[in-house]
Amino acid sequence: MPYLGSEDVVKELKKALCNPHIQADRLRYRNVIQRVIRMSKLDQWGQAEVLNFLLRYQPRSEEELFDILNLLDSFLKSSSPGVVMGATKLFLILAKKFPHVQTDVLVRVKGPLLAACSSESRELCFAALCHVRQILHSLPGHFSSHYKKFFCSYSEPHYIKLQKVEVLCELVNDENVQQVLEELRGYCTDVSADFAQAAIFAIGGIARTYTDQCVQILTELLGLRQEHITTVVVQTFRDLVWLCPQCTEAVCQALPGCEENIQDSEGKQALIWLLGVHGERIPNAPYILEDFVENVKSETFPAVKMELLTALVRLFLSRPAECQDMLGRLLYYCIEEEKNMAVRDRGLFYYRLLLVGIDEVKRILCSPKSDPSLGLLEDQAERPVNSWASDFNTLVPVYGKARWATISKCVGAEHGGSERSHTASFAVSGHLISEENKGRVQEAPDSETLMLVPNCQLTAEYFEKTWLSLEVAHQQVLPWQGEVHPDTLQMALQVVNIQTIAMSRAGSQPWKAYLSAQDDTGCLFLTELLLESENSEMQISVKQSEARTETLNSFMSVLETVIGTIGDIKS
Amino acid sequence: MISQFFILSSKGDPLIYKDFRGDSGGRDVAELFYRKLTGLPGDESPVVMHHDDRHFIHIRHSSLYLVATTSENISPFSLLELLSRLATLLGDYCGSLSEGTISRNVALVYEILDEVLDYGYVQTTSTEMLRNFIQTEAVVSKPFSLFDLSSVGLFGAETQQSKVAPSSAASRPVLSSRSDQSQKNEVFLDVVERLSVLIASNGSLLKVDVQGEIRLKSFLPSGSEMRIGLTEEFCVGKSELRGYGPGIRVDEVSFHSSVNLDEFESHRILRLQPPQGELTVMRYQLSDDLPSPLPFRLFPSVQWDRGSGRQALNVRLHLPLPRGVVSLSQELSSPEQKAELGEGALRWDLPRVQGGSQLSGLFQMDVPGLPGPPSHGPSTSAPPLGLGPASLSFELPRHTCSGLQVRFLRLSFRPCSNANPHKWVRHLSHSDAYVIRI
């Protein structure tokens, strides 16, 4: 049992945890919890432990909840960062249903977090920065006025600088964009190549919203003719042109001259792609590609060769006279002399395609040159705080979500569930919750995060049969304005692994859609969306093949997020 | 919480190793950690690393690595705080924390670890509680003497008291044997500020940040009550106003939990009963609005315009240069400065700079192969690429950038009033990151 300050404290906690009489009696149980919270003689470690225990407590009513929050208020002002973060996490989790309370807590914790970000201890600084990034996912404007605190200084270690650059990229808004861009511009000429490249990618990220200024900065950087800078700028341009077609003109003017400074594979691929897709706007595109073709024999990267093939065929479609000869030479080389089978196959494919006829080639290769809606889908709407509240103040933000997923897979495979019995705190996991909630809480760890299985396509008949046999589990109405664009909606739903069985055409009255999804336990969710002509609301009806409220709620929140995003875009 | 705890030297030699849970599976965890640390790719952070089924979290403290491992998903803030607190605690008991002191006091360190952590859970880190349990004595390298002035600098004449204490005075073990009462009772109070400044190439100030701390190291027996008085015009936040002048303003302030703030509102007095050892009494931050002008400005030369009579110590200017610099010729204004070219940068050391003085140095560099300035474009007078921002590092003794001063430090209610305790108060500002862009 952790030593929490004195014998009385230990006795109180033991009573609360182990005594079945107290657990059965709600009022006595609540009293013990209240006394535990009010203990004044705890040192910072004891306080952190108490806050951890309380995470598993479910307050019964709203006033009890606010009672507890009032008692814990003083912990938020503690001088120990562990206690402040523990209290914040508890507030966020207890106030799940009150987003304004959550926002309020996050405002109050801004001060301590910023102080930790400028602390002398680098490790503390790093942990605080990771948590700041986590908060910015939900509240992007939260730290915008304090952007100066995130400027990098030369003595900081590399990993802290990278985190700060990411934070700067995410907290940009209209007022501070000028200064932030200037600061990032300074970093792009830093001595360390890695850091300079990270800064350039960050500018690329900001460019999705503030395109003109960023393109100007990037063009200036090209003028420096530094290899590590030029290659990253060209890659950024390639990504930018796909998402923001309005900057294509400026990019095309900046490109000529870069090819002398690029030596690495990624940069070459990006440059060649740009020349292929937008070649008709760049006067000497064929001649640049001709240089590459001349040197294709000494080219070491097969990816570059493949990109070159595609780009040259594309350019041939728009400027046939200039490209015909070198296309022939390139195809000859790839088919007859190339040793890499992937490149050879692609060359063969294009050759046969050209033999079929130019119309066929045009049909296949003339893809859209940009896809602005992809950018909007990629920047997922601000994720609700509840999605990451349970990860706050743990090691998850420090690793990052992606690495944590790989780590927990390794751990899960080795240990199964047996590692939980080691720790004393988990040994009493059942007892702290009173009996009514026990069932719900035990389920919660399984279905906290809903995992929808991708690519599970139901046939229409199966869908209809299942739909008719189930009762409606949940109905909801969301505000909506204007027309529905079925393609966008379908694509958005696919991103979150919800399949569309059938969807009315755009503009039909009333507009309906049928969706299906399946989670990893095999539970099916069938959904009907209905938009009446005069209504400004969309009606959602969900049927579930197994009755489980937690998973249903998670599914509903996913669906609401997607529909809300699409609705915001269109209106 | 913690499975193992160990301390490694800067080269990876294990100095201390303690296994709390016994679940290392027979592997040499310390060796594993060091190999992982040195083999980490550049963009991953070494603070928290993962191997197999355990997480390694560590801090660096005066070139030692203090590492804790855990297999649960616990709060990084608590762990980092625990490691810092352990570092302070070991420093209190052994005098200072370094490879030498740890290797001399191995038994003491293990005893402390035994008392602080039980099966990986924190029992207590308060020096008061631990005093009752720790029996071993600390071993110091040589007996300390206050009158050993051979290493003291020349600023002794202006102090308020007739003796001076070298800066290593505070680094003796706090909790020495109880029988040795002839040790002088002393208390050291430091007001330390870190200054972080960014100046743009046109001279405008981009960012100013001051982080200040009031640190107390007490060798007094616990139970003595202490009152620290701060400047009366000390205001917190933008809207408060006290006194008749512009006041001394900070943005935010936070106190240690044991400080009694009853008299803070009225007279700016802090009351506390400090335990023996080190304690951070108060932390404050100030940004964007310094009452005094900045200590350094760089024109083509380095100039410091504070009033005369003050000094800056150990000023060092670090200026990265374009790649390929081959030679350096220099003209410096005074013989005790030196400048050298190393690692692609110019380092100019000025051991002591008088207030209000202007120093100049002329450096001429030969850079073969540097491309000429771009012929087109607006910035034809821009410096060549690679002539990086100049950064200064310095210490300013007896000066605080925010203007905060400690008015008095009074002790009352001493349980054993045998000797008058000595009180040492020091104000210090030093640079955290002082960058001037060219």
TrEMBL record, chain A:
The residue ranges crossing the membrane are: none
Subcellular compartments: Golgi apparatus, trans-Golgi network membrane
GO CC entries: clathrin adaptor complex; trans-Golgi network
GO biological process terms, alphabetically, are: intracellular protein transport; protein targeting; vesicle-mediated transport
In terms of InterPro entries, this protein maps to: AP_beta, AP_complex_bsu_1_2_4, ARM-like, ARM-type_fold, B-adaptin_app_sub_C, Clathrin/coatomer_adapt-like_N, TBP_dom_sf
Q: Which UniProt keywords apply?
A: Golgi apparatus, Membrane, Protein transport, Transport
Write one Gene Ontology MF term: clathrin binding
- Mode of membrane association: Peripheral membrane protein
Which intervals hold domain Beta-adaptin appendage C-terminal subdomain?
Answer: 452-564
Organism domain of life: Eukaryota
Q: Which SUPFAM superfamilies match?
A: ARM repeat
In terms of Pfam families, this protein maps to: Adaptin_N, B2-adapt-app_C
According to its UniProt record, which protein family does this protein belong to?
Answer: Belongs to the adaptor complexes large subunit family.
- What is the role of this chain? Component of the adaptor protein complex 4 (AP-4). Adaptor protein complexes are vesicle coat components involved both in vesicle formation and cargo selection. They control the vesicular transport of proteins in different trafficking pathways. AP-4 forms a non clathrin-associated coat on vesicles departing the trans-Golgi network (TGN) and may be involved in the targeting of proteins from the trans-Golgi network (TGN) to the endosomal-lysosomal system.
Q: How does it assemble?
A: Adaptor protein complex 4 (AP-4) is a heterotetramer composed of two large adaptins (epsilon-type subunit AP4E1 and beta-type subunit AP4B1), a medium adaptin (mu-type subunit AP4M1) and a small adaptin (sigma-type AP4S1). Interacts with TEPSIN; this interaction requires the presence of a functional AP-4 complex. Interacts with GRIA2; probably indirect it mediates the somatodendritic localization of GRIA2 in neurons.
Q: What is this protein called?
A: AP complex subunit beta
